[in-house]
Amino acid sequence: MSAPAVRRAVVDRDVCVGAGQCVLAAPDVFDQSDEDGLSYVLVDPLPEELTPSVRDAATRCPARAVQLEAGAGAGAETGAAAETGTGADPAADRQPTGPSPA
Amino acid sequence: MTDTADSAAPTEDTAELPSFPMPRRCPFDLNEQYAELREEAPITPVDLASGRDAWLVTSHEHVRTLFLDPRLSADGTHPTFPILAPRRKSFDEQARGFLPWMDPPEHTRYRRMLINEFTVRRIRAMRPRVQAVVDGCIDRMEAGPRPVDLVRALALPVPSQTICDVLGVPYEDLDHIQDRAEVMVSKVHPPEERAAALRDLRTYLGDLLHRKGREPGDDTLSRLVARHRAVGADDHDHLTGLALLILIGGYESTASTIALGTVALLAHPDQAAELRADPSLAPKAVEELLRYFSVADNVTSRVSLEDVEIGGVTIRKGQGVLLSNAAANRDAAVFPDPETLDIHRDARQHMAFGYGIHQCLGQNLARLELDVVFSTLLRRLPGLRLAVPVEDLPFKDDAIMYGIHELPVTW
Ligand code: HEM
Ligand code: SF4
């Protein structure tokens, strides 16, 4: 934890409902595919200065599809966790579907 | 015990329940009881005019959490769904293909046929077309007599012409559609006439979809037909329902926000002046006006499919839940000094478009229309003012969608 964490922005495309909030919040990080309208990540790993915009996107995403992953295996911050820090949010219990193939 | 019909009632003692929706304190503000409830009982039983009762949720935190909860269903045909007013049997039949009432996995399948038509990029590319529509309306206002009704001259034509553009509906059919849509959502026409208007629209769109299947164009309906075929779903009724929803779903809500937003800007001339001087403030002003009026407050209802414990209460299986986005949008915990209109505030956490999987599909189109309308109106008609006092405006106090029937303006 002493070295700056390598962070990744992740979109769970199984959950995304294409509302585009992430593109509005972090246009340098997310884009919606012309093919299916779902969001995908433009930059990986995530440059440090873009981290706040991804947190903003994670909170605004209506489907809780956006996550900020802190390095390999270090767990993820969802909008719920980043925002309220409580376990009361039912979406927080949802199992992440893991990285998508491709 | 939880499975009986009784379970649809949050409490046995229904005599004392407040009723929902509660009348507004004034055109700009909600009933003050919402704020009191949020303090004391943010999830509380209320009575509905339909004779059913339900849990009313008024805090931003709980509304948001419940929007995300997969145990709440959006199925408006569910026998204990918290409908606000009694409704006709034939209504459920008409609900086929009605996306807002679908639950996953059906919802996911149909929504995914539509979302790439409404991406941020696609909508941005439409700006010049929306600008042309708005300029056309204002040209006609300038050429005509004053005062003029801003609802008929601008608020209604902008969303209807825009959505016809998107869908690929021929302009020459617009008068017919506008007439039918107005009857359908009006309160002055009897239910039979309104049902007939809905049937006419379905017939019209059904025929149009057949035509788009035969001679596809570069528009949403043509692509929708093609995509529908590609996944082997050839349910024409469902497709017609989807098309109808897009055609009229964003019509009244956007028109209402245009009309009410104009009244609010005229009532706050200092903020209007700032916006006129600096159009780059428009996106923030639009979010604030969406928050402030939350015109679609009455559409975000759910029914619980299981017992849900939240905020110290248990929502039983089968009970109705009203997620009041208007009340949540006035929650001081998220929006300091919530009753004050402030185009500089960060209003982006508002839920005027809902939240969760049903969050408004047309939201970025609505944002674009509102942005272009307000910036163009202030720039081109700087002397714009109400032609009657605010108190005399006919606000839609008891409609499902909040709004104004008529807005006489001059300049
Ligand atoms: C200011 C304008 C608008 C407001 C306030 C608004 C509000 C809403 C709200 C609150 C919902 C969620 C309903 C729920 O959770 O049960 C919704 C859904 C929806 N809206 Fe809008 N809307 C607006 C404009 C539009 C426009 C312009 C369109 C079409 C182009 C549109 C199409 C839809 C559709 C298709 C859904 C259903 C999405 C789903 O169930 O997955 N809306 N809208
Ligand atoms: S905000 Fe969430 S649901 Fe919307 S496009 Fe981005 S990831 Fe998908």
TrEMBL record, chain A:
<dbReference type="GO" id="GO:0009055">
    <property type="term" value="F:electron transfer activity"/>
</dbReference>
<keyword id="KW-0249">Electron transport</keyword>
<dbReference type="InterPro" id="IPR051269">
    <property type="entry name" value="Fe-S_cluster_ET"/>
</dbReference>
<dbReference type="Pfam" id="PF13370">
    <property type="entry name" value="Fer4_13"/>
</dbReference>
<feature type="compositionally biased region" description="Low complexity">
    <location>
        <begin position="71"/>
        <end position="88"/>
    </location>
</feature>
<dbReference type="GO" id="GO:0051538">
    <property type="term" value="F:3 iron, 4 sulfur cluster binding"/>
</dbReference>
<feature type="domain" description="4Fe-4S ferredoxin-type">
    <location>
        <begin position="7"/>
        <end position="35"/>
    </location>
</feature>
<dbReference type="InterPro" id="IPR017896">
    <property type="entry name" value="4Fe4S_Fe-S-bd"/>
</dbReference>
<protein>
    <recommendedName>
        <fullName>Ferredoxin</fullName>
    </recommendedName>
</protein>
<feature type="region of interest" description="Disordered">
    <location>
        <begin position="71"/>
        <end position="102"/>
    </location>
</feature>
<keyword id="KW-0408">Iron</keyword>
<keyword id="KW-0411">Iron-sulfur</keyword>
<keyword id="KW-0813">Transport</keyword>
<keyword id="KW-0479">Metal-binding</keyword>
<dbReference type="InterPro" id="IPR001080">
    <property type="entry name" value="3Fe4S_ferredoxin"/>
</dbReference>
<comment type="function">
    <text>Ferredoxins are iron-sulfur proteins that transfer electrons in a wide variety of metabolic reactions.</text>
</comment>
<keyword id="KW-0003">3Fe-4S</keyword>
<dbReference type="GO" id="GO:0005506">
    <property type="term" value="F:iron ion binding"/>
</dbReference>
TrEMBL record, chain B:
<dbReference type="GO" id="GO:0016705">
    <property type="term" value="F:oxidoreductase activity, acting on paired donors, with incorporation or reduction of molecular oxygen"/>
</dbReference>
<dbReference type="InterPro" id="IPR036396">
    <property type="entry name" value="Cyt_P450_sf"/>
</dbReference>
<keyword id="KW-0408">Iron</keyword>
<dbReference type="InterPro" id="IPR017972">
    <property type="entry name" value="Cyt_P450_CS"/>
</dbReference>
<keyword id="KW-0560">Oxidoreductase</keyword>
<dbReference type="GO" id="GO:0004497">
    <property type="term" value="F:monooxygenase activity"/>
</dbReference>
<dbReference type="InterPro" id="IPR002397">
    <property type="entry name" value="Cyt_P450_B"/>
</dbReference>
<comment type="similarity">
    <text>Belongs to the cytochrome P450 family.</text>
</comment>
<dbReference type="GO" id="GO:0020037">
    <property type="term" value="F:heme binding"/>
</dbReference>
<dbReference type="Pfam" id="PF00067">
    <property type="entry name" value="p450"/>
</dbReference>
<keyword id="KW-0349">Heme</keyword>
<dbReference type="GO" id="GO:0005506">
    <property type="term" value="F:iron ion binding"/>
</dbReference>
<feature type="region of interest" description="Disordered">
    <location>
        <begin position="1"/>
        <end position="24"/>
    </location>
</feature>
<keyword id="KW-0479">Metal-binding</keyword>
<keyword id="KW-0503">Monooxygenase</keyword>
<dbReference type="InterPro" id="IPR001128">
    <property type="entry name" value="Cyt_P450"/>
</dbReference>
<protein>
    <submittedName>
        <fullName>Cytochrome P450</fullName>
    </submittedName>
</protein>
